[in-house]
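Need Cell wall protein's 3D structure for a figure. Predict it.
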Amino acid sequence: MLSNIILALPLMGAVSALPARLAVREVPQEHAHENVLTVVDAGLQSNNPGNFGASVFGLLGKAAAASGAGNLADADCLQQAIADQVFTNGKAAGDVNTMTFALIYRALERNTGAVGQASVPCASVKAVNPEIAALQQHQDPASNGAAALNKQIATELAKQIASIGGDPTLANEASTFAPGKLGDPTAKGLTCDDANDKAGCINTLKLRVDDLSADEITAAVSGVSAGAANAGNATAAAGGAAAQACAAPSAAAAAAPAAAPAATSAPSSTAAAPAATGAASNKAAFGSCDPSIVFTQTPADGRQEAAFQAKDLSTFPHGSALGAKVITDFICQQAVNKCKIDAATEATCNAASTAASQLKGQAAADSFNAAIGF
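Structure prediction for Cell wall protein:
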């Protein structure tokens, strides 16, 4: 959809924070879903035998993608290869969040040179993980038959997310833009591209056109239960979110909307310990913002089941979610710019988000709110 332009920007300190195997960090187009790319890049750092560059390269056309293809011969398969490796890494760590976003990443639209032009499928490589192999990338919404195909892709994505114990409503995170105008000489269509918007400019600017309604997602995953991909990893999954928060840069952790992994046992009373520490000062650090969350039976977006959402939707606009961490991670990331919180407050927010992810329902909301002083 977007033209294949690579903007060579100064790498500054960003590269030094990454292993050499992710040192290819030129900043090309296709950063609309930066929230997804951030999680995938963090997941790739733990093990990258293919020497792939940043995940954004997988969303480009073949010529541009080759710059980040590493050892992969067919750059048309880079998106699938990165998704497959990140899913493998997440599975090994019992990290449902990383596995979920690997699936979402595989279903994102790839770049083409013109509005209405479909991207080339991966034909030369078969994914190792059947969950990844079941998916394909979204197509330019102006291309022939895209509406029906993209809905089909999103439906399959919801099923695969549900099969690993993730939140299937996150399938819409892979949705793309409204159709552009055929013949647009800029080839941009109705898009955005902002590598600095960690929530994803497609979300922030409300440009994402969801493929599925809440009812369609519910119908899609009816009868689907967590299967082999998550078997034997229950204990690790319970701690996966906390492990990622320690291993990845704070910005990556803050930008990772995610379903909370299922806990294998009731969390101890120490899980919410951060809530009692410096609550008053934490609240003051958010200035005039109210970053608290609610667990409500009547979400503002019309979801027909109890879910989490931000209390102040004007400052923190995000659809409701079944997992608290989807909302709390978004709030922590947005608060950096919207509430001008400092690094220490951001770290407190991220820790509160991780702690709350181990709880359910109102207990999760109460834990997060108390920890940040609300």
